[in-house]
Amino acid sequence: MSLKTLAFTLAHSNEANKLVRTKLEEEKCEQYTPIDLNELGTYLSRYTVNLENESLDFPIANYNLHQGVSNVIKSLL
Known about the structure:
This protein is mainly α. It has 4 helices and no strands. It has helices at residues 2-16, 26-29, 38-46, 60-76. It is extended, with a radius of gyration of 16 Å.
């Protein structure tokens, strides 16, 4: 979910040519350099994350898998 939010934030920042969705000072936001999002987009699309509509939910099956793996790792530690 965090990577999806990051992808949309960076996409909006690329369009605005400044960092958006932040509480940083405007001067710092304007120092933003656009980032190529191809690699992040490719990664997220492998997990069927919708990168066209931000309001669509994260695929629940992938979230449940992530939570299950996290719980197993926690129990092993």
